[in-house]
Amino acid sequence: MSEIEIRDDRAAGRLEALRGDEVTGHIAYFVLESPARALVPVHTVVEPAHEGKGIAGSLARELYVMAAREGIVVAPLCPYVVKWAERHPEQAPAADPELLEAAKDWLRAHPERF
């Protein structure tokens, strides 16, 4: 079985897991600009044929790595990423509650995005 490649499509707001040319899963996200810059994952999807292979966890981990590399935080709204972060606090620092509220407000104001 080939390795999973993770690719960030920032313009589309998708962090994608690929095996060869096949997208096996993704995290849909947006970039919050205010009150602070943050990556905000909204939902995680893994194709049924690829469930149980650690793809969602790999995507969540990479999202936090990307944020750290950019010097910003993750403000998770996606239930899967929230649970993953709770299980991996050493890799996933908690977001400020004010930032989470701002992310929820942004999502309510832009329902067409997701």
What does this structure look like?
- Helices cover 33% and strands 29% of the residues.
- The protein contains 3 helices and 5 strands.
- It has a 5-stranded mixed beta sheet.
Order of helices and strands: EEEEHEHH
Structural class: alpha+beta
Largest sheet: 5 strands, mixed
Number of helices: 3
Strand percentage lies at 25-35%
Low-confidence runs of at least 5 consecutive residues: none
Gyration radius (Cα, Å) is: 14 Å
The share of residues in helices is: 25-40%
- Count of strand segments: 5
Sheet with most strands: strand arrangement? 1-2-3-4-5
Q: Globular, elongated, flat, extended or rod-shaped: what is the shape?
A: globular
Distance N to C terminus: 32 Å
Quick tags:
114 residues, alpha+beta, 3 helices, 5 strands
Would you spell out the secondary-structure blueprint of this structure?
Layout: E1 5-9, E2 14-19, E3 22-32, E4 38-46, H1 55-70, E5 73-74, H2 79-87, H3 97-109
Parallel strand pairs: 4-5
Antiparallel strand pairs: 1-2, 2-3, 3-4
Helix pairs in contact: 1-2
What's the short version?
The protein is 33% helix and 29% strand. The chain is α+β, with helices and mostly antiparallel strands and 114 residues long.
